[in-house]
Amino acid sequence: MTARRAVPFLLTAALAGCAIGPNYERPPVASPESYRDEPAPAAPESLADLPFWEVFRDETLVALIREALAENYDLRAIVARVETARSTAAIARSELFPQVGYEAAAGRGKNSFLGAATPSGSEVGNSFLVALNAFWEIDVWGRIRRASEAARADLLATDAIRRAVLLSLVTTVAQAYFELRTLDLELEIAQRSVVAFEKTRDLFDRQFKGGVASRLQVLRAEAALQQVAATVPAIELQIVAKENQLSVLIGKPAGPITRGATLVEQPPPPDVPPGIPAQLLERRPDLLEAEQTLVATNARVGVAMADFLPRIGLTTLWGSVSPEVSDLLKNGTSLWSLLSSATGPILTFGQNWYGFEAAKSDWEAARASYEGQVLIALQDVSNALTARVKSAQIRDAQALQVAALNESVRLATVRYVDGLSNYIEVLNAQQQLFPAELELARAERDRLLAVVLLYSSLGGGWSYDGPAPTVPSPLRP
User: Fold this and answer.
1) How is domain 98-138+310-343 classified at the CATH fold level?
2) What Å distances lie between residue 107 and 104, 125, 325, CA to CA?
3) Which string of b and e fits 39-54 if b means at least 16 CB within 10 Å?
4) The Cα angle at residue 395 between residues 389 and 398, in degrees rounded to 5
5) CATH 1.20.1600.10, domain 3-96+141-309+357-457, yes or no
6) Quick one: CA dihedral 4, 7, 10, 11, positive or negative?
7) Cα separations (Å) of 221 from 215, 426, 427?
8) DSSP-derived 3-state class of residue 141
9) CA dihedral sign, ordered 289, 247, 71, 69
10) What is the b/e burial string over 145-164, where b = at least 16 CB atoms within 10 angstroms of the residue's CB?
11) What is the pTM for the complete model shown?
């Protein structure tokens, strides 16, 4: 907006007596009718409409999430910030109403009254004043209304951040729990593989002692056994770290975490479609925050425009003034005044103009950020939908591989005992089976994490405010 265009707009708004500045309108954004790779036609119902306890059906996991919502310190901190923003919005709105105060003064001096120079024949005297005063800025141009609108948008943006922290907490606890159960399964696989490798080493040792095999076979089997055995403490270390992470998330000191269903026994998530892409604008916390930031910057453009116009106000004073305290309530000592004022800029060397330009630039930046985040949200959902389908396919293929390798280990061992193959065949079969079983466990994990990712990318559970954590304060009784 150029200076030539700005001046007529300001004058028109002033004559109309409306809130100056542009009214907010949501910018048009790219919102397709359905998500890419969506397996079914778009439907109004969405996985994100379900509360977390209907998506994650492990009772132990649900209990951990509830505990995190009640005790997590990051959530407590953002709840306190929401209260700060709520108070700031109330402060901005209070400027719409008259501000009433009181005044009291007492003085003693020569040729002075209440500290002001007053000829009194060089006498030393006292002076006392008690009064009520009030000031009211009449919001003719809507400057205060726009400032209040911006503060309210800041409050809603902060509350959207709280929703984002809540959603992140739910999904982070779920992800960490599934990763912990994956590590438990990996530990079980490693311990089972150690037993299998011990049996193979003992078989080779018996063959060696019977003069059928060489010492080399025993040594190779021992090396393979120790290689697998070394993974056990490594996985145990990861389990402790993951338990400690979960402990922090639920607001507890580092310690063991209760387990529920095993990784492979996790109840399947509900088969609910992702919903309509346009719903993201109303559901995802990051998009809600970005839009409210845009609303706030839009309102501040109006505040900057109002700074070009005079501020009109009323000031009143009512009270009593006297040289003696005992005379303050007597007739003849009362005082009152009513003053109207209008103050405005004439020469500010561009201060107001550049403030207006800065407000416009903030709005343009906020709009670009909002539009960009919409595209990122659509990308996140598309990636999550693809991950959900592909992770299931990977898991099925991995399961077939493990089944085939289990059978190959059995056949290789039988052939070795019957003298139809050498020890290399047995060791190779076992060494291929162990990492394949670990990969199958991770494929199971990825299948579950794909649901977590989809729930998060859709802004799931956004309407659930959870058990609000309490924020202890020494200022509260």
Assistant:
1) Outer membrane efflux proteins (OEP) (2.20.200)
2) 10, 8, 11
3) eeebeeebbbbbebbe
4) 140
5) yes
6) negative
7) 10, 10, 7
8) coil
9) positive
10) bbbbbbbbbbbbbbbbbbbb
11) 0.83
Helices assigned H by DSSP within 230-350? 231-249, 280-283, 285-306
For residue 90, give both structure tokens.
């109330």
Residue at token pair 């056949």: 411
DSSP sequence for 421-434: S-HHHHHHHHHHHH
Identity of the residue numbered 346:
I
Q: What is the pLDDT of residues 189-223, one digit of tens each?
A: 999 999 988 988 888 888 888 887 788 888 988 99
Distance CA 355, CA 401 (A): 66
**Which tokens sit at 319?**
């009270």
- Which residues on neighbouring strands pair with residue 100, listed in sequence order? 134
> Residue type for 215, please?
R
What percent of the chain lies above the pLDDT cut of 90?
48
Q: What Cα–Cα distance (Å) separates residue 449 from each residue in 68, 215, 256, 446?
A: 19, 47, 22, 5
Where are the domains positioned within the chain? 3-96+141-309+357-457, 98-138+310-343
Which of 421-425, 441-445, 472-476 has the weakest average pLDDT? 472-476
Give CA torsion, residues 154, 155, 157, 161, to 10 deg: 130
